[in-house]
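INFO worker-7 received task bundle
INFO bundle size: 2
INFO processing item 0
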Amino acid sequence: MNRALLIVLAVAACGPSKVPSDQIACTTRAGLQVLKPVPDSWDCPAVQAAENSILRAFSTLSSADGRFAEAPERLKGWQVHVVPAKAWTSEVGVRVAGETYCPTFTVCINNDRPPDGSLGHELAHAVQYCEPVMYPPNLKDPQHSNWGPIYAALADQQIPP
């Protein structure tokens, strides 16, 4: 299959879906469902280790934003689609390495081995349920309004922002 077509199909799969259990590669302790197909580097222990690091990072943010104290509960049931690409063009024409679809509880992330890809960033959106305001809004980038503390917490766990 043509690689471009495969990427388009994978990104299109990021819409709403109720997935049969045989299409779930693994479910983490917090309840993230990683959907098949996944690259070999996305084995369940690697995904769980990445989730553990991300949740440790989020726990340091709970005093500034109480939603992060509830991160494990807020992530339960979210689906993770691994797109077979490093980046793609979103529906609004922007190059991205990950996207979060809050109404469908779905994140699409690039295929970098966890936690090296966009998983931490997209799960921060999920925990905030795509609400842009954590700190005073930066009107130039309302979806990442002053994400400095989030980026710093992820970096402390060696997770790219």
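INFO item 0 finished
INFO processing item 1
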Amino acid sequence: MSLVAIQQLELDQVAGGLSKEKRSLREIQEEERERQQEVDFLAWWAAEEERVRVETGSASMGRGTKSSKRPKRQGPRPMVNHPDPEQEANFLAWWVAEEERVRLESEVTSIEETDLSKTSKMQRSRKKQDHPADEQGQASPKRGTRSPRKKS
């Protein structure tokens, strides 16, 4: 990055900092509304995760039998403030991308482990080629052992 580009970037940041202070009430309210929608969405998401966790937990415990510990709900189901569809779509897109990233990392790790095992096999194969006596069934001397002395 050139010196001129850095200076221009600094000037833009300074100019951006000054204009940030001069926001209109409408812009501030819009930002607050967006933040509130995000908070609502995260609360909804946490409630959904908890609901699914409870349902899967109870489903795996009884498989069709109702739990006697849980009281029967009376009346209509409470209303949940559902998130903005665009925010939900963005979150779901992020979630899918994150799962794909984790899958690819695991695949890369698996490939690296496979390559590592192939490399060690190749090294063992090279050692056998370097010591042909091993292949013919003749044992090569081991470390720390003495060869028997010939009697004269």
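INFO item 1 finished
INFO post-check item 1: Residues 84-129 form one domain.
INFO post-check item 1: Helices lie at 3-21, 25-62, 85-130, 132-135.
INFO worker-7 idle
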